[in-house]
Amino acid sequence: MPDIAPYGAWKSPITSDWLAGQSVRLSEIILDGEDVYWLEGRPKEGGRNALVRLRPGGAPTDCLPPEFNVRTRVHEYGGGAYTVYDGVIYFVHFKDQRLYRQRPGEMPEPLTPAADFRYADFILDRSRNRLIAVREDHTHNGEPVNTLVAIALDGSGEQTVLVQGYDFFSTPRLSPDGRRLAYLAWNHPNMPWDGNELWVASLQADGSVGERHLVAGGRQESIFQPEWSPQGILYFVSDRHGWWNLYRWTGEAIEALALRPAEFGVPQWLFGLRTYAFLDEGNLVCAYTEGDGFWHLGRLETASGRLTPLDLPFTQYSWIQAHGRFVFFLAASPEEPTGVRRLNLETGVLETLRYAIEISFPKAYFSRPEPIVFPTGREEKGYAFFYPPTNPDFSAPAGELPPLFVRCHGGPTTASAATLNLEIQFWTSRGFAVADVNYGGSSGFGRAYRQRLNGAWGIVDMEDCCNAALFLAAQRRVDARRMVISGGSAGGFTVLAALTFRDVFAAGTSYFGVSDLEILALETHKFESHYLDTLVGPYPERRELYQERSPIYHVERLHTPILLLQGDSDPIVPPNQAERMFQAVRARGIPCAYLLFEGEQHGFRKAETIKRALEAELYFYSRLFGFSPADSLEPIVIENLPDS
Rounded distance, CA 82 to CA 617, Å? Predict the structure, then answer.
């Protein structure tokens, strides 16, 4: 029989040590013939991104010496940090942001100068012996300059600007004959999911750009992942009809493939994202979601537009690649962690090449996500995944309701997935219920749902998180007196707004969250420097709105204990955001704590930081709610809390 213990005090095998020390972050699958490559972000190695290769019949091996960290800082979020052709690896080293080349059996050699340039999103122009890439130029005062450049591979390091004149570029793609270059471009204040443009430029014999043609896109149309078919037809994803659907451009007209209320694209926070890949001219394999938060993988016939779902056990797919009869992708399910998968389309055999974490305990400890739809108070629906407390070794005393942990994702234009998130399981296996909220503005539910946040950041997201909690409390599935809210980055801002402007939660934790929208607008990096024009209003014309929505200007309305966690090297949300909030809350006598982590940027990557942050949050709630965790936790100093 299970032991009886209060919610929050259950002993769990999902420990902070195990989470921080055994997991890796998998991303960026790339194929080179029959070889498959991917990146592993390793907390135990200080968060280094290691490049891993798997050859047929072999085992995964590291490709680069351990001092190299494959990560680009273009747009600060990176992605598209490497590529491979015929065994030759081209990659960006995080420390100096230079582009390197590693030939088989040799050490990496720099291809670009030791200057303040950053590079991403590479494509090999084989006939001209050069790489085409996005370059971000930080060598001068003022805003960095983004261009598409050609980087000579003859050892000279010569760089030629091919396309310029827009604030941002991404996704350069060469046609199979090497005569045309497709790319995406956009200007402030748009983000790529708001609106961008798909261009095709002809390339002259000397490699210079000739005539250019605007294929699709604009201020109100978002284009994602242009890709040439084997025969040179340009495919792309567009939300011109309200959902990110697949289209193709024949050179004369744009044709829709399988129009439906489903998303075949995702927000372009990173370079190199791929949701589809060609099997041959007549077939492609694609990931899509039909507005319920669950993703599928399907086979699309390009002539008829017929989409056939593949019978696979996963609910999330990303980084799709294909070669011959094999499809490679990252995938996860509510019971399976993220893994590099290989599917044989002829035999149906599915293999896992690498797990993000190896799980050695029973699946009975996992709480499964239940999709919920809740009223938002604006005559609209909101979406979340609800995870009940789950631990086969424990049950709660009769009549006790569990505390609720509301999780608000970052972005804010990203989404929570119905997959095995072990940080969520950390809480549910200790006796917390979790609501993972896809508030208005989240992706995966169509363009109109994304645009609910336009002009309303700090209102719609905050209200949706509050309403999700109140919905569950009204159903008596959680304890209304013990509801907490936690989130990072944009989610951290939502936390601070909910604690300041509403009286729903008993406590909250902000991971590198925004407290002052005006400071964010003035100090953040180029990629997001005008994002708030859309989410809040044009600055400085609507400065009053920025102050009206910023928790730091309304601390007198905050009465709720708060924990602030921050990296000292964060270029996106600098530490002054958390520090000012902490000082103001402490001065008001509200219980609060602040932890600053050395060497951490936007998103914690080091094992010791991940462990400390999780344990600090658990300790914080245990002191406020009066339960004794089964874990041995290092205390934190909680200001204004007696006996702390």
Answer: 36
